Every structure is written in structure tokens, then in C-alpha cells.
Amino acid sequence: MVEIGLSFLPFPASDSPLFPMPYSIRPIKELRDQQVRYAPREKKIEQMERAEKFYNEIDTEKDYSYKSICFLITEYRPEMYAELVFPGKDVKSDLLQFIDDLAESIAIPLEQVKEPVWTIEQLCKKFSIRSKTLLRWRRIGLISRRFLLDGKKRVGFLNSSVERFVANNPDCVRRGENFSQLTEEERQEIIKQAKKMSANGKTPTEVAQQLSQKIGRSIETIRYTLKAFDEANAECAVFPNRHTPLSKEIRQTIYQAFRKKESIESLAGRHKRTQTHIDNIIRSHCVRRIMGLPLDYIDSPEFHAMTDPALAHEAAFTANFEDEIVGSEVFVETANHDSTGLPPYLAGLYAIPLLSAEQETFLFRKMNYLKFKASQLRETLGKKKARKRKDEMTQIEDLYDQSVQIKNEIIASNLRLVVSIAKRHVSPTSSFFELVSDGNLILMKAVEKFDYTRGNKFSTYATWAMMRHFARSIPKEKKYHDRFHSSEEEILESAEDLHISPTLEEKIQAEREDIVRHFMSELSEREQQILAGHYGFFENVSPKTLRQISSEMHVSKERVRQIEIRALAKLRKLAKEEHLDIP
């Protein structure tokens, strides 16, 4: 018989059990909590013995009531959960963890044990297995204990538990013993055949599976044999690149190939890696891409109502765009515009139909809802199991791709607007097509920021955004251009006119007035009167001084100034809410 207490392996801290397994049955977990905290030490030992006996009698094909489970462990009939019934498979799994947790809470001194105790090292040697195999045995019923030796907790196995496991799992034990019976000739034959299969593009997993069927050994035996050979013979390894990390570029190439519909099996064979390894690479790249997607959206209460099954009408949002417009004629017919003589780019714009107000609202709602839904799914990624995460990531990518497609449709339908505004800002220092290029970028940003829930037309918002941009960029470009004139004649020309041309200045001022007029309706009558009078917002009306306005309104000049400051502050706040600045 094995001597007690020899060569124990250190046992981890009590908050980090050796074989942690989550509970499937809440009542058993609550029973564990109660017994660990309040049961006397002697009761815990008795309950462990009864739980182990019950564990070995469980039929995984049957169901067990919590009333009988609790009684067989504690000899107490509970009132709570008494009528609940649970599958034998779940009961068996939770009992294993229950025993483990009770043992962890008491750590029996080794000298008090009345039967021989096996260590992990001793069992591995006895059955000619590795510690990983022993861990698998633990998960299927080899019950361990915690013992106190020299003031430290250590793990061991009662001899009765080992004998019971061997009697109940003879096939498992026999497979473990067969591992040590692999002769040198068999090893060499495995390595020889594995090299031939590897040369033909087989992955380590494929080699292990096929050799296992061919020679009648377990897959784990084949895999371990090849791995040990490769580690000891790096110069002639069966899979020389198995332990060489793949570079960032190769990983990216694998992901791109998968995105182009190449199978994981094909990629594994090409790169001499397991399918699991390739799948992990693809999954990690996919996660990084998903987490980096720009899923900012304009929120709406109706989006949150859509997630409630009782209120769901998701088809109105997610239905295919082309199907929606078949019978509704939501497109506005293209105007009869003669594009003869226009450059190809400009001529092509008039082939794209404009959008009606209803169609515009529909597209913005759909685009933002798709991004909202993708964002909601992304927030739950960390809470999903691996298989579910893969499905969720695919769904997020599809939703994002759909939102980008809709965004592009909106942009394409408004490119004519960019051209019309760019024409109004052409000057000797700016190229028309450069203005169009800048305007296109502003249009793209405007699509992302436009709040369709306010009821405004997108074309109005985009016009303000582009006018604001041109009002700022064109004077800067002219100033930069003037600064770097090279000839004396250019220097003299620039010296004659250090400011922007009167025509351009008038145009910028008109744009300012257009923007301010849009918000004037939000001001009080007195605030409107002061701003309109001071800045001359109405035609044929010259700007007035604050003193002139104060005389007309019969208030002090200081009071007029205060009201003007308050009105301007309101305008700035409104402009900020609309993502606009007053030039």
C-alpha cells in the first residue's frame, strides 16, 4: 500500500480551487453556501462521505428532486425548492463541486485520515498517465480531498475514492495504461507515417485523427508522441513550424482570405496549423474589427421600443430598401437636365435620383436603427459563449455593412448639392474640383451627424455645414497663397488688397445671415428686433448703432446691449445643438 503523505503537490489558495466548476443548480449552490459557513467540521466530513456515496449511485438518465438530494446529503428534508426536479447529469456535476468546496473549507489534517492517501504524482506513476489525464478523470468522477500537512493545504485522493473510480471507469483507466505500453518501434512508425502525411499538407489534427484510426491508438497518444518528438528534435521535427508564432502580416493574410470565403480547413492545411488555431486567429481579428467599428448613431425612443417584443415592428426598418420603394414611388423623378458638355463626373450626378422628404426620413431612420442594433449587440459580446459570440459578430458586421450602404445612397443623392454650393465659392485662389472634393467630405460628416428626429430637411443642414466650412477655409487659403507669392508683381498685387474681395466678403456675410435667420424664430420679439436692427438682417435696412436702437425702443443703451448678448448666447446654443457654428 502507498505510504501516506509522501511528495504532495502544493494546493492553491482557498479562493482559487484546483478544479473550479460552476453550479448548474441554484439550490445546491445555496446549500453549499450554508454548509460551508455554518455546518460544524464533523458534519461537513459526514456530508462529504454521503455526497460521494450518492454521487456514485446517480443515474444520469433519471431526474432527482431537490428534496431527495438534500436529504441524502444532510439527512434533512427542506421546505424550499422541495418539489423542484433536476436532471441527473446536472446533479452529478454539482455534487462533485459540492464535495470539493466542503473539503476546501475544512482541510483535514493528514494524520487524522484513517485510510491511505494518494498524491497526484503517485497516481500518475501508478496508472502511467500525465497530470492532464488526471484532471480529466477528476471531471468525470475521481473525487479529491484537501489535507493539511505542515500547515499548508495540499490535494490528495482517498484510496477508497480511487478504487471506486477504477471500478466505475475501467475503459478510461485502460486507455491511460495503454499509453505507457507504446513500444519504441510503434513510436518510430508513428513518426515515420506522420512525416509523410505532413509533407502532403496534413495538419497536426488530421494526422493524429487518421493515425489513431489506422493503428488503433488514442488521438491524445498520437498527439503527445509527435509533440514530444518535435520538442526533442527541432532540426527534423514532423511539424517544424508548430511552435513558431505566426507574424502579424500572416495573421492578417489569413483573416483576409477567410473574408474572401476561403475555408478554415484550407487555411489550416496551407499554413500547417490546426483548425482551432486558425479559427482563433480569425476570431481575434474579427473581434478587433468589431470593436473598432464606428457605430455612433442618432438615438430615438422608437429604437428602444423596437427591442421590446410586445412593441416590435422591426420589419418597417429592416425590410430591404428596394422592396420598400416598389409600390410607394418614394423617389422623386430626376429633373430633365441637359448634361451635354459637362465633365463625366458632373454629368453622372444627374443620373442619380433625388430623394423626397419621406424617403430621406426613412433612410436616416433605417441607417441609425441598424447602427443602434449593432451597438447593442456589441455591448453584449463579452457575456456570450464562444459559439454565440461568433454568430453575434457576423450579425454586427452585416448590420454595419447595411448601414454603410444606406449612407452611400444618401450621399449619392446629395452630390448635386455639393456642386451647386461649390460653384458659388469659386475664386481665383480656389479650384472648383478642390471645392467639390472638400464639400464631399463635409457631406459625409453631415450624414453621420444629422438628427432626422428634429424634422428638418437634410439638404438645409448640409448646406449650412458646407457654407460654414467654405467661409472659414477660403479666406485661410487666400492668406496662405498671398504669403507665398514669389515675384515682385505678385507681392505688389497682394499688397494692394490684403483682405478678401468685397464680393466674397458679401457672400460670406449673406451666408452668416442665412444661418442666423434660421434660428431667429427661437428668439423673443424684442431680441429679434435688436439683432435685426443692429446687423441689418433685412433687405434695404442699414445696420444701426445700439444707441439708435435704444432710442427707438425707449430703453437705455446698456439694456439693449444686455439683451443682444443674451440673444447671441441663445443663437450659439442652438447652433451647437445643430452641430453648427455661426461664421
Description:
This protein has helices spanning 26-38, 41-57, 66-74, 88-106, 120-127, 131-139, 159-168, 170-179, 184-199, 204-215, 219-232, 248-259, 264-271, 275-291, 301-306, 315-318, 321-325, 344-349, 357-379, 386-413, 415-424, 432-449, 458-483, 488-496, 502-520, 525-535, 546-553, 557-577, and strands at 63-65, 85-87, 108-109, 117-118, 145-149, 152-158, 331-332, 354-355. It has 583 residues and is mainly α. It folds into five domains: 26-176, no CATH class; 182-236; 248-291; 301-482, Four Helix Bundle (Hemerythrin (Met), subunit A) (Up-down Bundle), CATH 1.20.120; 501-577, Winged helix-like DNA-binding domain superfamily/Winged helix DNA-binding domain (Arc Repressor Mutant, subunit A), CATH 1.10.10.10. Strands 3-5-6-4 form a four-stranded mixed sheet. It has a two-stranded antiparallel sheet with strand order 1-2. The longest helix is centred in the last third of the chain and has 28 residues, at 386-413.
